[in-house]
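Page 37, top half.
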Amino acid sequence: MTSANRHDRSALGWALRLSHLDLLVTMVLLQLSQSFLSSESGIQRGLFNLLFLVVVISAIRTLSSSKIRMISALTIGGIGFLLASYADFHHSVLLIAATDSCYVVVFLLLILSLAESVFRKGPADLNRIVGAACIYFVIGLFFAFVFSLLETFQPGAFALSPFSDSVGIHQDTVSNLIYFSNVTLTSLGYGDIIPITRPARTLATLEAMVGQLYLAIVVAKLVGLHIAEQK
């Protein structure tokens, strides 16, 4: 075997061991691209909906540790995509609520699968670190859809900019709430979008607390594993 072949196999093995890398890459792409998609274009609304399905599909390796979770996430994610696509043509509060509920469940399943991988016994390897980063991204998406669900049933729960296009209003709402969720999770608190109602304030506070506690717990876990390896 030549050195080039050994290098290729080593690189392939390294990539295969990073079971959460696909998910991390697609979530970063989701965060970057969704803000540029206009709700006024039917094609771009379709791409917006497709982005979330791609995130679910990219998590297959992450979810593979539990066949039940993997099948459940793929099925519910597919249903969420179909409901979101149908809601683009038939605006309905129930359809929007069902779509948001599907993604809330999917991202919760992802958090559980990632947590099992990140907090299991074993060395503090790169895959564990990538998984920890994935959890942070998924928490932001999870709360974004929880916020969207609240806004659907309690319009005005968040101080959002008014939208004139009733067809694309859900996309605009979700996009803005993804931004708000990430700002809250990282405790930036710009103040351009604020929670108005008591449930909205409670959920926003909860997310901020989760974000701070998660970082502290993950750092403690990784440092503990590193110290254990040195002994």
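Page 37, bottom half:
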Amino acid sequence: MLDRPLRSRSLSDIGLRNEAKKARPDARPQAWKNRKRIHWNTLRIFSGRARRRWSWIIRRSRTASVGQAPNSTAPLAIVLLILAGCSCLAPVVPAQAGLDEPRVRARALGIVIGSYEPGPLNAITDVAGVSVGQTTLISGDGPLKPGLGPVRTGVTVVIPRDDVWHKKVPAGSFVLNGTGEMTGLAWVAESGFLEYPIALTNTLNVPRVANGVMSWMIARYPEIGITDDTLTPVVAECDDGRLNDIQGRHVSETDVVKALDSASSGVVQEGSVGAGTGMVSYGFKGGIGTASRRLPETEGGYTIGVLVNANHGRRPELVVGRVPVGRLYEPVPPVAQALVPGQSEGSIIVIIATDAPLDGRQLTRLAKRAALGLARTGSTARHGSGDFMLAFSTANTIPHYPKEPTFQQTHLADTHLNPLITATVDATEEAILNALTMATTVVGRDSHRIDAISLSRLRAILDHQAK
């Protein structure tokens, strides 16, 4: 059955319409043509069944206005009123809108992850004693000249505490997908502790950055390798070759020492800085992100801090606050995808710090849970992705060659781990989102351009989904 009675048209009706057509000039007024153009430009936002439906509405509105003046705006007004009142339409905000707008963190956009409050800085440095330093290298433009540039790279370091060589921290790690490298994990797994800074950089720069960490450590502890142990630095990598002359290995030992010497316990720069300078995440500009959570006193009052280097994911996978932003956003440009089929699909490094009294086994469990925060943003840890997590605790000190055969440590019962697990998952998710919202657009080698996510577009998508 039809929703409305079928309307028949008599020969007289057709004749009247033909006479009306003859009465109109052959050349329609320009205003009418402009109005028609506007109608169809409006219709371009629709497709398929919706376009046919709106075409029918416009035809009916034109028929209703046959007796009006040629420059009447009635048909257009009807369409615009219907469009304005239709709440089912997706917000129309250009994807490039707001690329020059000030970058803000996810929480400033109204994106609140979980129920626990962040620390004062909402950063890994909210964990007392933890410091972060970064060196950013940007130089050159235009075509790639292997070994020379353009350069879009850097190094980020995390120092667990002062004099970590003599006051080691319990640590644990987890590899979600091993297409990549984080050096030094074998010793962390064997010993259950960490005794030097953690460094993040690009893939081909790992040896030089490791040299920089060793030079910095030897300058402070000259007995290393002579009357004291040697060291195997922890250096984690991501591939920044889409924007950077990665063959040039431009991060020098001097750059690493500079980052270590400048490390502070204050605000952490995020986005396109340090090791994150050339990173791409979910088809947008990625990089460094951080977040923290502070448990209520009833649950221990502990702090969890997370720092990530986000260089992972495909555009359609991105989820923000349970909203499939990646599928609602515009398609990703080819340069923001893997360069050739089967090439590395990126990586992510997650560093977790806490002041909760955990041992290496418990910290390994915490590192595993960071993968859940990663998954909340849409990642599936693809075959070509390197996803490495490292967690440490500053609550206890493991002495350097203790004189006594035993030493005491405070130990949190496993039955009280749940709040820390939740906080780790939430902080990891927010750190990744902060990397995206704080990153700025970067143009790198061969004029490859990776756009930062448009905050206005992101906000429009989230607001629409919340209705």
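Margin note: The chain has two domains: 28-85, 106-466.
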